[in-house]
Structures are given as C-alpha cells and as structure tokens.
Design brief:
alpha/beta, TIM Barrel, Jelly Rolls, eight-stranded parallel sheet, six-stranded antiparallel sheet, globular
Length: 489
C-alpha cells in the first residue's frame, strides 16, 4: 500500500478526493493503486522530447565530470529547433559524491540552459542499465554506459549516501518549474543481477526506498520509474504518479503496448508517457512518432545527439539524430520529429527550414574492421559478441563483403529468435553452404559456421547477403555478423 496516497495535489498530479485503493487485474497484470473514475488532470501529453547525452560524453559519468556548458548550450539549441520541450538527462550519484558543490553548480547551469531554450528537464536520479555494474571515475572517458550507483551500493549500508544525494537535489529543486518529472530509477531490471537469487529483491527494495524518500521531500513535480519492460510497472505503480514505458518494437508492437498501458493508467487515474523508444532499423522514428501522435501521449525518444555513446557509434548508428555540427542523419527523421502527424512538401525542405544540413552518411557503403557493408547495415555495441560488437541488417539484398586468404571460410554470427536467413557466395559463386538460417530459440552470440573448405590457395572474396527471409518461428529477418574468418580454429 502507498503510504503517500492521501487525496489532493500529489507531485503535480491532481488526485480525485474520492479515490480509493484498489487491486486491478488488467492485461494479465495485478496492480494496486489509487483507483478513480477520473483521469489525472495533467496527462503530460504535451511533452515532446529526447533523451540527451552531450556529444562529448561517452557515458553519464563523463557528462558531469567533463561538464561543458558551451556544447550543451549549442545542442539544446538543436533541440529547440526541433520544437522539443523536454530533455531526459541522466545524473550520476558517484560524481555528486566525489564533488558535490561542483555537481550542484553544474546541475543549476544545465537547468539554466534548458530554460534559455524553453525546455524542461526530466532528471534521472538512479540507473541500473547496464552491466558491468561498476562506476569508474578515473578511466571514464574510455568506458561504455555506467550505472548509478551500481548494484553493489544498493544496500542499507549505502543508503545514507543515497539519501543525502536525493535530499540535495529534490530538496533544493522540489518546486522548480524547470523540472517536469523526477525519473527516480531507469530500468531497474537492466542488469543481469535482477534475474539472480536475491538480486531482484535488493533492487526493488532500493527503488521503493528511493521513491518514498523523494516523496517525503514533497516535490511539486511528478515522480516515477522508467522500466525496460511494461510488465514490471506493477512493481512501482503504487508509489508513482505517472506510468512510464520503454518500447523498441515495431509500430504494431509499440501501439499495442501503449494501448494496454493506457488501459491500466485509466483504471488507476494515472497518466502514461513513453520516455525511451526508437532504434534503427526495427523502430524508425518516422514510423514510431505517427503512432505516438495518434495515441496522444507524452514522449522522449532516444537519443538527440550522434556523439560518443555506445548507442550512437559507427557509420550506421543504432540511435541518434543530430551530429555535433548540426547536420542531421536523415531529413525524414527531422521532418517526423517536427511534424509527427505529417508534413507538406519534401522532408529535405522541412529539415532545411529548421536550420539542419542533411548528411550523406545514410546512403553510402562503409568499411569497418575489414568488412565492407552496404548502406543499411548497422553496428551494435554491447556484451555478448566477440569484441563487444556486431553488424546487422534485415533488408533484402544488403551485403557484407570481406577478402580472406585461406582454403576455408567461417562465418561468426549471432543466432537467435529474431534472426533470419543469409546467403553466401565466394568469388561470385554460391558457397558450399549456400544459405545459413540463423534462427535459434536461444541466443548464441558467436555461432561459427563453416561455409567452404578445400578452396584453392590464395585470396577469396566472401559476400554475405541478407535475404529478407526467415524461418516460420523467427520473429525477424535479422542477419547479424560478428566476423568473417579464414579458419575454423
């Protein structure tokens, strides 16, 4: 039961005076919360925003350790050109703990720059995404995304430090109109610790303590938890003012997720927003935003900048829309952000009128680590594949080419439930194994397939082609290459 469920104004959301605590079964979720016949008055549907990591930052630690107001000012200007009114920004408890006065000064500077560009901030206080659950304050410029504060610091022995951090921020800024919502913890289930014995209980205990402590400060703003999976919202819904979802599925999956969650929100009298979505190619922003506009909910896509994060690396980044110099990755994407419900004229004209140059990087082949990829391949960085990266494509006829020098050829590929069929040629002729079906019920990041043996000595050109076809049980046509090598050993 929510100890803060008294009727009246609660964190910026008007709770009806006749609300009662009830248990509701909706869409297979058993939820407890304030049940009301009336929806919350501020449904946050006006929110149109982006997750923002400054282009100089590889991670949330670097955002604050190397705080650069000049870069932030320029890039919030891009957000203003896109007519965004909100940015979701990840804070970092470890940086506050190391240098509290500077951190708070930089936070104030960030808020002032947001206000300059007519943008509100959605601060993320804590974050469980991703593994490894370690924070490095020394070699942080060379590290991928880091958690805040990390699984090892979620226990009661560390709570005084976390409480001090909450009070310093929420206590000082609880009435500040420049802040729209406190996202108390991002993706609590974003670490493998959530699936281990005792891990889930430890994380849930921490986030509930954090939610209650934020509430105790009496903020005028709303508060919530940004879950990776909608099914987990039931864990925190009773302590939240807003139901937040993240979704990276195709447009149909996105629409269904929003509709199911809004049904829950209506039953509990709480608004629903989405503050993470968009990832090429499975969920393109020009396909996702019309869905969200139709559903009329507040949104923040991931992410504004094409900078140094692992999510925006490579010639064909998974995420990100604007380069540091103000060039946009795609005119169609900019036009969709500016006009989610549709626009008149060409996308190029819409982007140009907003002051964005159009990049030519979306339409050229590129070469990375010895493999030449046709334009629609994307690079993905993360744990699992050898080298912590792979390249993927789902469109038919997209090719990956590499020259090897040996008498055998081995493909190292990800197999999984969303994977499709690849065809293989060597020196322009079908390989011994002409097609590789990479569907598997379970994920295997580095499955090795010998596609040719006993070749003539010398150099051979290997071409792997996405066919756009898949096994009946597969949920996608993704061909995902880790490497093309010249030996099965």
């Amino acid at each position: 039961m929510n100890p803060f469920s008294e009727s009246g104004m609660r964190s910026g959301v008007l709770v009806p005076a006749l609300a009662c605590v009830a248990t509701v079964l909706i869409g297979g979720l058993l939820l407890s919360g304030s049940l009301s016949a009336e929806p919350a008055k501020d449904d946050l549907a006006w929110m149109r925003g982006a997750n923002y990591v400054p282009s100089y930052s590889r991670n949330d630690v670097q955002t604050w350790m190397d705080f650069d107001p000049v870069v932030i000012d320029r890039e919030l200007g891009y957000a203003e050109r896109l007519k965004l009114n909100t940015v979701r920004v990840f804070l970092q408890q470890a940086v506050y703990e190391k240098q509290p006065e500077k951190f708070l000064a930089d936070f104030e500077s960030f808020l002032a720059l947001c206000d300059k560009h007519k943008i509100k901030m959605m601060p993320v206080l804590f974050d469980s995404c991703t593994d490894p659950q370690r924070v490095d304050l020394k070699e942080y410029r060379d590290k991928d995304w880091m958690p805040s504060p990390g699984f090892s610091r979620l226990g009661m022995e560390d709570w005084p430090a976390m409480e001090k951090y909450i009070v310093a921020l929420v206590g000082k800024y609880k009435q500040d109109p420049r802040i729209v919502l406190w996202d108390v913890m991002n993706e609590p289930e974003g670490t493998g610790e959530f699936g281990k014995a005792g891990g889930k209980a430890k994380i849930v205990d921490f986030l509930q303590r954090a939610l209650k402590r934020v509430r105790a400060e009496g903020p005028a703003q709303s508060m919530s938890i940004g879950w990776a999976f909608t099914s987990n919202t039931s864990i925190s819904v009773d302590l939240s003012d807003v139901i937040i979802i993240h979704n990276y599925t195709d447009p149909n999956g996105l629409a269904g997720d929003i509709q199911r969650t809004r049904e829950i929100g209506r039953a509990l009298g709480k608004p629903v927003i989405i503050n993470e979505f968009v990832g090429r190619p499975q969920q393109r922003i020009e396909e996702a935003l019309p869905v969200i506009a139709k559903e009329h909910i507040g949104w923040c896509f991931w992410e504004l900048m094409i900078g140094r994060t692992q999510f925006s690396q490579g010639t064909k980044p998974y995420q990100g829309h604007i380069y540091p110099d103000g060039t946009c990755y795609s005119a169609k994407e900019v036009a969709a952000i500016l006009c989610p419900e549709g626009y008149v004229g060409s996308a190029e004209e819409v982007a140009a009128n907003a002051g964005f140059k159009v990049s030519d990087k979306g339409g050229k082949a590129f070469t990375e680590e010895g493999i030449t990829f046709s334009p629609l391949w994307k690079r993905w960085n993360g744990n699992g594949p050898t080298g912590d990266r792979l390249w993927y494509a789902s469109d038919a006829n997209e090719t990956a080419t590499k020259t090897v020098e040996d008498t055998s050829v081995v493909l190292v590929m990800k197999f999984g439930p969303d994977c499709g069929i690849a065809s293989v040629t060597i020196d322009g002729k079908p390989a011994t194994v002409r097609e590789v079906d990479t569907y598997s019920k379970d994920v295997d990041w580095n499955r090795r397939t010998v596609v040719a043996q006993d070749l003539a000595a010398g150099r051979h050109t290997v071409v792997v082609t996405a066919t756009g076809r898949k096994a009946a049980d597969s949920t996608g046509c993704y061909v995902q290459i880790v490497d093309i090598v010249a030996s099965p050993n």
